[in-house]
Amino acid sequence: MTYKIRSAFICALISFLALYTAMAQQGKRRDSLMFYQSVQTYVNPVLPGDHPDPTLLKVGDDFYHCGSTFHFNPYMPIYHSKDLVHWEIISRVLPASKAKWVTDRPSAGIWQGAITYFYGSYWIYFSAGGQWFCKAPSPKGPWSEPVQVKSNPQTGPLGYDNSIFVDDDGKPYMVIKNGQKVNRLQALGKDGQLTDIVINLDWINAKLQYSWAEGPVMCKRNGYYYYFPAGDVSGGQYVLRSSALTSDSTKWERLGDFFKPITDAKVGFRRPNHIAAPVQLSDGSWWTIGQSYEKYDGDDWSGTGRQTALYPVIWEGDRPWGLAPTTQPIAKPNLPQSGILWRSMKSDDFESQTLSWNWHFLTKKASEQYSLSNRKGWISLNPDTSRAHLFQKETDHFYSVITKVNLDAVRAQDKAGICLTNGNQKVIVRLYTGFDNGQQIIMEMDTAVRRAAKPIGATVWLKVERNEHLLTGFYSRDGKSWVTLGKPVNVVNLDKAQPNFNSWVGTSVGLFAEGKRADFDSFTVKDGFSAIPAIGMNNYFGVKKLADRSVTNVSPLGGWFMISGVDFRQSPAVKMAIKAASRARGELEIWLDDLQKGQRVAKVKIEPTANREWKAFTATLKNVKGQHDLFIKFPRGTAGDIQIKNIRLTD
Prior knowledge:
By secondary structure, this protein is mainly beta. It is 6% helix and 43% strand. Strands 25, 26, 28, 33, 34, 35, 36 and 38 form an eight-stranded antiparallel β-sheet that branches. Strands 27-37-29-30-31-32 form a six-stranded antiparallel β-sheet, with no helix packed on it. The radius of gyration is 25 Å and the shape is globular.
């Protein structure tokens, strides 16, 4: 056996064994060929970007997620999924106009966002200077005015990190958490208020066994009640069990850690916690979602926020275990794909009369400083003495953002463009059109400044490309021919762990205006006409990243990878160019949205390249518009024949 063949065989074996181990822990076995030719697996996180304190609700065949919003508004976005892997925002519970008492201060705002269903209604319980709830006939709304939950001397303060548990008989309980040592339960009536007597579980963390024992959730199985407290924001997840809902500590067992020990040394999401209450599917499997910061040896992405991952729950008798975090693909739940795309930042052409749910504001004032009616097909940002803005949660390490902005800057304070900010809004990157001894294009972060004289006219195209911790600015007259604004800016100080846990949130990216009104024609994210590195893949099977920052398959059975939310723009792309090196002929298949139920839009013929040199191979596309999950499928044959560096669309 030659070295190359032996190396490829070992890589394929490692990949298969990792998947086999995960499937064995899940109690599943599937035909291996199917995994290489269709999407049977997922890679965490399924909710990339800032998604802290997740809660999870299953009603029929639908799943809903909500969590802490903190100072981002409109508050409490509701996510919907049919398969637990693909999620979309379908509503927001509380607009800023109905939350006058909620502070804009970073790290404050609204905590918790516990979504639940009981007594025929959907409810969201949340913390903002006390416990509150809103209710609705559907997760899409309309949501009621907020109602404060009343406490009493016996129950005590209602805390900030609660959840709702609904027993088999339909009776709901508030799982109360206040400070480090208060852990309690109390039933809820049909009016959403506390009723019955409190079940005192303060003994759970009386000696601070679980640090803060925060974010407790509960589920029930085989007559046992399971209570899952988290440690604190840095990690730790634990589980207790009892055959009765009682305050008697002798009736409860401390089962220890919830997650299995990590065996994958490359894992970046190493300390998941703050899980949602596990849910059971019709096939008997159990699942949960949980948060974690992302950090590798020498490569810190904690600034992105607490990202949410999907974990199988493995039962050993009546003892639950969460699957250990892994970089390897995990067999997905046995649920149908619904057509929802992978969670990613979303492009917006601002043609709608209402703002997309994907946007948020950092202040209540900013939520009143925009207009979609001043200029059809544009959004206007109208600052006063403060910065007008709108943002989305950053979801990727590789992407581009493009906007077309109209601003006639005549003063130093007149600025408009693209902005990235950390949680406490102290580390900010901006690319903008402005005025500094004449109209200029400027990119700045801290002391790093790049600038160029602005092209003639009030309208200009701006683009930011992120390549991991490097951001490069561009500008253009027409959105096609781009001029680079100097060398990249290193944004490690934005991406790394921030003081005070980044005010509990993560990086946002969006648009801003200062000094005077600015109009934006579009917001294009993950632009397909900019080179997209293959190593920025969001899901994959049977492939690996190489030292030269390319991707290849590790099995003769093929393999595939997916890049989420690629924007093909509204004018149909004509060709796709794949930068690749190859030692043999082959044919790559290009699919949109899924490898079975999606659309195959091209086949790209690959020829051998001399000395494995990089070459662009092109194929004509069918009529493709809008944002799609882009799949690249390797052919069956020898592993490692084809290496892919990047993908790019051309007119």
